């Protein structure tokens, strides 16, 4: 197989496998009229746990060896959290938090 | 219709920033690896999985076995196995859009769909489909732009990827404030940190999610006695 065709096969494989992971719960529980009560229970209660895991995922490379390796993340999250509890405005919290973080990594802790 | 588009656009704005930036980074890297804008377009349109696409780049142009590629994809994307659990019934009601909703269930789409309380005057199906479609388009647009013009960006964008972290933090807080029972949130946080310490940054997500589900099931009675989370 030539390079081009083989690359296309690789991309296609990744696309199909990605779809299959997303399709998995639907294949398993989607056929019945009503999914098992335990499945709907987990589906309903899982989102906050997933969000917590994703937040940790975004911070996974944070290190406590030097100030610039953790201070921008911690301050950024504190700003986002404080703004959001105060105003509950998605755009304000995310926008201001991101600008603050960018200023910290580009100017303050460079 | 206009009302729907307006609402969807505002809801997805944080993801627009994050995806334009990350998509551009992907397009630029792909371009540097020797793959042009068509590849950027088709990969982002058909794979649509952020971290996986970055992992995919070094595999292109090699003779990597398909089996390796399959294993790699499944191990990086296995967290998606759990996302559908929250939307089995809702997606089934969406008719023709059902396969597309499953295809487009990324971390970010999942987060937006979980946190969206549809206003009474809007149609939930349209909003759900719009959120999925808009974020997909942002991702493709970012990749294409990065591929075509990534080298032209001169201002310092370091740190803009924090928009993604901020999005997850904000949704976490929203869910915390709107639910009486915090066991799932605390379980997720604890499991993620412990799992990160044990398994390291590369492979901590799956154990963290499995442990979270175990805790949520163990505390079923005390969680169910209070209100549901969504």
Strand proportion of chain A, as a percent range, falls in under 5%
Helix content of chain A: over 70%
* Average pLDDT metric of chain B: 89
Number of alpha- plus pi-helical segments of chain A: 4
Note down, in words, how this protein is organized.
The complex is a heterodimer of chains A (110) and B (230). Chain A has helices spanning 3-29, 37-58, 71-87, 90-108. By secondary structure, chain A is mainly α. Chain A folds into 2 domains: 1-50, no CATH class; 59-110, no CATH class. Chain A starts with a helix and ends with a helix. Chain B has a domain at 2-155. Helix content of chain B is 71%, strand content 0%. Chain B has 13 helices and no strands. The longest helix of chain B has 31 residues, at 2-32. Chain B is globular and about 55 Å long. Chain B starts with a helix and ends in a 6-residue tail after the last helix. At the A-B interface, helix 1, helix 2, helix 3 and helix 4 of A face helix 1, helix 2, helix 3, helix 4 and helix 5 of B.
